[in-house]
């Protein structure tokens, strides 16, 4: 909302007090704890707190790393909102809580009312495992589950509303467990930001882009850059296979255009921290990737026959995502013709600006304190406007200006080289998916690993798009890269992809697998099922397996950590 002085202010998020200051009567408390890796779960949790306070609750919002299980067990009503990181892992800020929960006493949460809302991405097999694990563990520790867990895919904006309404209604009927007061329980370890470790989104490291070179040829359909960053802190302490998160700022032209559309000068103050709206839009909120929830919110006031409104109300997530593809927040406002939106309310609906993560293309053994990234620049024109990727454009600018940027490491859970350096590795990385395998090969070269290395690389055309071609051919000539299989889909009459090369090389693939080789896949999420099918075909054909045995064999590779994917 806007004050009389033109200052934009946030809505109050409430407190955890248990007595109304006006009536002296007890009010219903609700503690919303979140585990978030990219900011989505935190955003959803904050919206639930706003909704709860609007219904008369005294709601509080905390991340899971701000308290211990013992402190959580003393809450009157407990809601956990958590994402799942990677394939089935706890978000970084939920891991300490989860670790302590494993050794908690069997009745720690006895009769504590709780509910869990899990969000994830169904392209992963265990896409909501973190929420499932927390839900199951709290139940085993005596917690009183007031509502079955909800598992949400990436469309949680559209699918969580009914569950949240039911959860708030159900919690109103709950009588909190009586307990003795214990002053020691009021402490919240880690609540002081100064005590947080470096190398996290909350306390990022710094970096400077010290080298940038174009990998793709000028005639290529894609512009791919190789960046080398000098990094500080924990970002130096990575392993090949890890990723580096870059925290961008929004393009100032997009910010100015959005301010103009909203009728704001940009100098208005927003919130209690004294930031201007311009600063807030540039540094704090996601403008390049509109989320489904804000679209649904915007179309509430559109005409019943408006095509975008019909699209939202159809519940067809794929169709809505197709419509959103390539559009930024300004596009959405313009195309829905939402000219009377309240600026303060609009800003409160925006999600926090997300970091972008990139597979690291280097090795500490070979490259010291420099972290290498392989980045495809996003740039296109639509609706008469020039669009650029929030982070790929940001990195280009940082390379030119030598501006210090904020980064932090994202350790992989399974996507690392085998501990046994005599083990063979098969790497499948089309396009920029080759990045981590460049790091793998550089590491194995310096460490003189005895295991063999086989790389599958692909793109549309060889001449403009073969990334790191000279390096790969040199590694092949000096014996580090034992086999190199390439597929350039548009360079012949029939399209040929890396999965086709895997089928063609099936005899060798099966021989390597039988000898203990590990398989790594990196690339867009659409590649994962294609590689699965290719490997299953190899197992059926060259391993003489039935479809059932081939499926079981592939599952055993996954469970042993010998078939690992990094898809995005």
Automatic annotation (TrEMBL):
This enzyme's EC code(s): 1.8.1.2
Required co-factors: FAD; FMN
Example of a GO biological process term: cysteine biosynthetic process
Comp. bias intervals (Polar residues): 1-13
All residue ranges annotated as the Flavodoxin-like domain in the record: 30-168
Region annotation (Disordered) ranges: 1-22, 175-205
GO molecular function: flavin adenine dinucleotide binding; FMN binding; sulfite reductase (NADPH) activity
Stretches assigned to the FAD-binding FR-type domain: 202-418
GO CC terms of this entry: cytosol
Keywords: Amino-acid biosynthesis, Cysteine biosynthesis, FAD, Flavoprotein, FMN, NADP, Oxidoreductase, Plasmid
Cross-referenced CDD domains: SiR (cd06199)
Catalytic reaction annotation: hydrogen sulfide + 3 NADP(+) + 3 H2O = sulfite + 3 NADPH + 4 H(+)
PANTHER family tied to this protein: NADPH OXIDOREDUCTASE A, NITRIC OXIDE SYNTHASE-RELATED
Name the record gives this protein: assimilatory sulfite reductase (NADPH)
């Amino acid at each position: 909302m806007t004050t009389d002085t033109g200052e934009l202010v946030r809505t109050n998020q409430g407190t955890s007090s248990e007595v109304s200051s006006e009536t002296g009567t007890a009010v219903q408390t609700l503690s919303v704890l979140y585990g978030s890796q990219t900011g989505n779960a935190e955003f959803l949790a904050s919206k639930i707190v706003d909704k709860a306070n609007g219904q008369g609750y005294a709601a509080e919002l905390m991340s899971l790393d701000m308290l211990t299980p013992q402190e959580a067990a003393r809450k009157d009503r407990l809601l956990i909102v958590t994402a799942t990181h990677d394939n089935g892992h706890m978000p970084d800020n939920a891991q300490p809580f989860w670790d302590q929960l494993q050794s908690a006493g069997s009745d720690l949460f006895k009769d504590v009312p709780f509910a869990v809302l899990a969000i994830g991405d169904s392209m992963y097999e265990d896409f909501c495992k973190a929420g499932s694990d927390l839900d199951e563990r709290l139940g085993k520790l005596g917690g009183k589950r007031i509502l079955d867990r909800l598992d949400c895919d990436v469309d949680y904006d559209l699918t969580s509303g009914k569950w949240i309404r039911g959860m708030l209604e159900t919690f109103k009927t709950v009588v909190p467990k009586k307990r003795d007061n214990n002053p020691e329980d009021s402490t919240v370890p880690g609540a002081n930001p100064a005590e947080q470790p470096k190398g996290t989104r909350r306390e990022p490291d710094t970096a400077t882009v010290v080298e940038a070179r174009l990998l793709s040829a000028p005639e290529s359909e894609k512009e791919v850059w190789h960046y080398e960053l000098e990094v500080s802190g924990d970002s130096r302490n990575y392993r090949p296979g890890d990723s580096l998160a870059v925290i961008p700022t929004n393009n100032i032209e997009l910010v100015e255009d959005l301010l103009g559309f909203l009728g704001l000068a940009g100098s208005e103050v927003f919130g209690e921290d004294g930031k201007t709206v311009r600063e807030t839009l540039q540094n704090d909120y996601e403008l390049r990737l509109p989320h489904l929830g804000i679209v649904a919110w915007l179309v509430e006031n559109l005409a019943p026959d408006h095509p975008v409104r019909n699209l939202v109300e159809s519940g067809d997530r794929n169709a809505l995502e197709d419509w959103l593809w390539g559009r930024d927040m300004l596009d959405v406002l313009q195309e829905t013709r939402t000219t009377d939106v309240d600026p303060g309310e609009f800003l409160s609906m925006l999600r926090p600006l997300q970091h972008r993560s990139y597979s690291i293309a280097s090795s500490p053994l070979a490259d010291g304190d420099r972290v290498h990234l392989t980045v495809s620049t996003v740039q296109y024109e639509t609706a008469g406007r020039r669009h650029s990727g929030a982070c790929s454009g940001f990195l280009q600018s940082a390379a030119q200006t030598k501006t210090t940027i904020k980064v932090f490491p994202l350790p992989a859970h399974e996507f690392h080289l085998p501990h046994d350096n005599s083990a063979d590795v098969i790497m499948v990385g089309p396009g920029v998916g080759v990045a981590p395998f460049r790091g793998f090969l550089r590491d194995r070269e310096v460490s003189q690993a005895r295991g063999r290395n086989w790389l599958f690389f692909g793109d549309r055309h060889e001449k403009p798009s073969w990334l790191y071609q000279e390096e790969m051919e040199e590694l092949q000539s000096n014996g580090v890269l034992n086999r190199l299989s390439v597929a350039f889909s548009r360079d012949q009459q029939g399209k040929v992809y890396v999965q086709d090369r895997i089928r063609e090389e099936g005899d060798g693939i099966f021989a390597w697998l039988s000898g203990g080789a590990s398989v790594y896949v990196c690339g867009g999420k659409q590649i994962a099922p294609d590689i699965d099918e290719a490997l299953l075909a190899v197992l059926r054909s060259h391993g003489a397996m039935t479809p059932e045995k081939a499926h079981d064999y592939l599952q055993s590779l996954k469970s042993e950590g010998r078939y690992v994917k990094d898809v995005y």
